[in-house]
Amino acid sequence: MIKLTVFGANAGKTFNFRGFGFNNGVLVLNGSAAENDGVIKYLGRTVQAFPDGHERLENSNGERDTKADTQPGHTETVSSGIQPTGTGVATQTAAVSPAGGSAEAGSEGIHSEGSGQKDSWVDGLKEKVTAAAKKLDPKNDDHWSQLGKPMVAAMQQLSGIPTLTRRDIDNFLPGLAREKA
């Protein structure tokens, strides 16, 4: 007979997980450790249930380690209880912010999916794109599309930025057209 004790957020709770009934954070399995090896590993990974004497349970009363939770950059597994297929348990890693701290990803930068940090390279990029636009020749058909917009290839060459895109040009120089050049 093997006794598994839950560590972490579900410690001490009574719940049913995929047919395994935990009573006050404890599950008793019939058979030997060798016979239940796969189940023990599975429950350790999914609900943090470990056999007596396991290193995760040593020096612990089954509660969360609150010291680690307050460290910036700390991550822990978050479970929604349902996978995208609609069954089982889905887990993700989530960053834990320090007590009283807050952060809003994407609050600065060019795009809403930004890093949350001001993108210093944007100013330099805009300067290069603007300087390249001043070099465009309204009489040179290689510099302009049939719609009168600057050719991306010409802007890449004139700016020295081989990864420059139409979106970049339109963002930095909205309305730039052959007739205005």
Report on the architecture of this protein.
The protein is α+β, with helices and mostly antiparallel strands and 181 residues long. The protein contains five helices and seven strands; from the N terminus they run ββββαβαββααα. The protein has helices at residues 37-47, 66-69, 121-134, 152-159, 166-172; strands at residues 2-6, 15-17, 20-22, 26-29, 49-51, 75-79, 91-95. The strands form three sheets. A three-stranded antiparallel sheet has the order 4-1-5. A two-stranded antiparallel ribbon has the order 2-3. It has a two-stranded antiparallel sheet with strand order 6-7. Helix 3 packs across helix 4 (152-159). The longest helix is centred in the last third of the chain and has 14 residues, at 121-134. It starts with a strand and ends in a 9-residue tail after the last helix.
Give a quick summary of the entry.
The chain is α+β, with helices and mostly antiparallel strands and 181 residues long. Helix content is 24%, strand content 15%. Strand 2 and strand 3 form a beta hairpin.
Q: Please give the alpha-carbon distance between the first and last residues.
A: 83 Å
Shape: rod-shaped
Q: Radius of gyration from the CA trace? A: 29 Å
Runs with pLDDT <50, length 5+? 62-71, 90-113
Strand content: 15-25%
Extended strand count? 7
